[in-house]
Amino acid sequence: MTDFITEGKVKIKVYKGKISKKLPVFYNPVMELNRTISVVLLNSINKNNLQIALPLAASGIRGIRFLKELKKGKIKTLEMNDYSSQALRLIKENLKINKIKSKKIKLHNSNANIFLLESSGFDYIDIDPFGTPNPFLDAAIIRIARDGILAITATDTSALAGTYINACKRKYFAIPLKNELKHEIGIRILIRKVQLIGAQYEKALTPIFSYSKEHYMRIFFKCEKGKKKVDEIIEKHGHYENSGPMWLGQLWDKKLAEKMYMQEKTDFLKIIKNESKIDVFGFYDIHAICKKHKIKQIPSFDVLIERIKKAGYKVSKTHFKPEGLKSTILLPKLLQLMK
């Protein structure tokens, strides 16, 4: 059964039903933010004439939104691929619904990896699978261009966030940690895995925008080439307590996060813009600290943030957890201010 939905500036036909691989052509309404942030990020970078690849295009919603919502001159070519011939038919139908005819568009009906490897390369590749991105990392990294952007989604958060430790070891060569930091640690484990694949091809993949939301983790990487740059990436891999190895470096390019917020002034992007300015690992879960240290009166976040700022430290809420604060303050001083 099909239905029409509106997302962003487009209207498309989708298959209705339980969100699973069993849908004739996959569409997940929960991932609207995922697609919106892709649009905002590409509109915030100083690059035009992009050769864009969507190897797992499904209904075509992301590609059609790119065509409708990206600034003029952004797209040189947009190539959408799906293994399902039914998906290709739906993409064609959705292009007609949105009255889009363009020589920029190329449609492919192939295995995602074959599609990528048979190409000559792209400036932007978006890997947004059902589950782990692992099967697509090699081909995507081989075909991402110098200074290109690789976007990776993982929906197997139960492995990355510590519910299934052995699955994380098998898939991501790391040990997760199931505590208040689990989503940040999960993202850092995923980043390292992608970077290790990049290292094999002398491609340094640096995160420029990362976030965890709902049931998925999402990272945008900038690609640079060279052995020295790869070595610098690997030097930033390490452990936290008994978890890891993982990426210990930046999760955001703070200038990009600022530009993205100016494009789309949402609370979510505002929080990330603020936390991107604080280059520290992890955050403080204020409720967990109060429980552990028997602080009966939990101070309001606004009051606590002001106290921390007045004491001379950087501080921000974090998108990873509503009860979390990211700050340069050390725990003993934080406890003093809380009490």
Task: From the structure above, extract its key features.
339 residues, alpha/beta, Rossmann fold, Phenylalanyl-tRNA Synthetase, Chain B, domain 1, seven-stranded mixed beta sheet, three-stranded antiparallel beta sheet, 40% helix, 26% strand, globular
If you had to describe this structure to a student in words, what would you say it looks like?
This protein is of the alpha/beta class. It folds into two domains: about 1-260, Vaccinia Virus protein VP39 (Rossmann fold, 3-Layer(aba) Sandwich), CATH 3.40.50; about 280-339, N2,N2-dimethylguanosine tRNA methyltransferase, C-terminal domain (Phenylalanyl-tRNA Synthetase, Chain B, domain 1, 2-Layer Sandwich). About 40% of the residues lie in helices and about 25% in strands. It has a seven-stranded mixed beta sheet with strand order 5-4-3-6-7-9-8, with helices on both faces. Strands 12-14-13 form a three-stranded antiparallel beta sheet. Strands 1-2 form a two-stranded antiparallel ribbon. Helix 1 (about 30-45) crosses helix 10.
